[in-house]
């Protein structure tokens, strides 16, 4: 794919002047260069000089030379006039930090015990029987009855519990428009162009378009995978990438157990049927069930339960942390005479 893209770019460069391809640039023969000159003979006589720059040829396994720019993606320049064809574009570093939405937990709650039962004895031991109207009593409703319990039996109140917290993701304060594609911060661009035929002094060098600005550097390029060692003539190594695989995720939100919880329920019995004349009181906490012992000679005629302490505490959220990496793919290695781009980038 890279070779195809490179070939198409070179064909474009060649079409600019009906030129022959030489590496990643194209050149004009002296006859082509001078065909439109006012004095063709004088033009051909002067044609033995490279009007660009003589640089070392690309060794085996490399393409080029070519002019390479590297810098901030937003600062990408046009290819120079002497090398107008873009033969490669890649990326160097990413500017897309992963920010996870914070996790939160729902509030826990003090929960009523499973039920209220009548014990077989005054000491809350022996067989227990469900008490009619127990759920209404536990919900704080005054339940009148002429025969809730006898004066020889106790009431057993189970321990209240604390409900767990449910995790969720804190929604952003305002809607955010987020691109599905990570953004590259730094990029690279390789340009090729047209020179006259190879007129350098030795066969080891070739004539290529000259650098017109300090942002570009003469480079050779290896398109594809694998470790590449740069030759001494092109010591500055630059690796650019075609794309990336974003494998970053946010860890799932979780909630720790409730902490700081204190839940206790008080069971009250009354001499009258309207819960106004208190007879006995017993409390059940999260650690101990309650036992409401009978009062000899007295039979309760109404009953209700109320929260004595209702402090369910809180749960600590966990999760919502970035994990994973961005993996660049499709590397290409450029070996340059000097590091391209501005040192302050």
Q: How would you explain this protein's 3D organization?
A:
With 345 residues, the chain is mainly β. The chain has two domains: 2-96 and 183-246 and 327-336, no CATH class; 114-157 and 262-311. It is 9% helix and 40% strand. The chain has helices at 2-15, 30-34, 40-45, 134-138, and strands spanning 20-22, 25-28, 53-56, 63-72, 85-94, 103-105, 110-111, 116-119, 128-130, 143-144, 155-157, 161-162, 167-169, 184-192, 194-196, 205-208, 216-223, 236-246, 249-250, 254-255, 262-270, 278-285, 290-292, 302-311, 317-318, 322-323, 326-336. The protein has a six-stranded antiparallel beta sheet with strand order 5-14-4-17-27-18. It has a four-stranded antiparallel beta sheet with strand order 9-8-11-23. The longest helix is centred in the first third of the chain and has 14 residues, at 2-15. It comes from Sorangium cellulosum. Residues 1-26 form the signal peptide. Keywords: Signal.
Draw up the topology in text.
Blueprint: H1 2-15, E1 20-22, E2 25-28, H2 30-34, H3 40-45, E3 53-56, E4 63-72, E5 85-94, E6 103-105, E7 110-111, E8 116-119, E9 128-130, H4 134-138, E10 143-144, E11 155-157, E12 161-162, E13 167-169, E14 184-192, E15 194-196, E16 205-208, E17 216-223, E18 236-246, E19 249-250, E20 254-255, E21 262-270, E22 278-285, E23 290-292, E24 302-311, E25 317-318, E26 322-323, E27 326-336
Parallel strand pairs: 2-15
Antiparallel strand pairs: 1-2, 3-16, 4-14, 4-17, 5-14, 6-13, 7-12, 8-9, 8-11, 10-24, 11-23, 17-27, 18-27, 19-26, 20-25, 21-22, 21-24
